Amino acid sequence: MGSTESVETCRLLMLAWAIWNERNHVFHGGEHTNPCRISNHASNYLCQHGDLMHKGTVRRDDIGEKEHHWKRPPEGFWKVNIDGVVFKDKGSGLGVVIRDL
Fold first, then answer.
1. Partners of residue 80 on adjacent β-strands
2. pLDDT by residue (tens digit) across 3-40?
3. Which of 6, 7, 30, 100 could be disulfide-bonded to 25 (CB atoms 3.0-4.6 Å)?
4. Which residues neighbour 46 within 8 Å (Cβ) at sequence distance 6 or greater?
5. What are phi and psi of 73, to 5 degrees?
6. The model's pTM
C-alpha cells in the first residue's frame, strides 16, 4: 500500500467510516454493534479494497450496482458526506460536503 504513514491513514479513515456507518445504523433504529466487530469490519473492508487495487482493475461485479438517491434531511438536521484518498507518492486528501437542503 505504501509507507507506514499512508497505511495508518487508510486504517484511520476506514475506522472513521465504520463508526459513522454504525452511528447511522443505530440512528435509524438498528441495534448497537460490539465495537470490536465494528473495528474488524473496517479492517476486512480495507483488506478487500487492497485486494481489488492489487488486481489493477475493479469490475462492476466487484462493487455491485446500487442506485443512490439523495434525500433531504429532516428539518433541523444537516447531512455530512466525508471522503478521503491516499495517494501512493503524493500525500492524501479529504473532502467534506455539508447540506441542509
1. 98
2. 677 778 888 888 888 898 888 888 888 899 898 888 88
3. 30
4. 10, 11, 14
5. -70, 160
6. 0.49
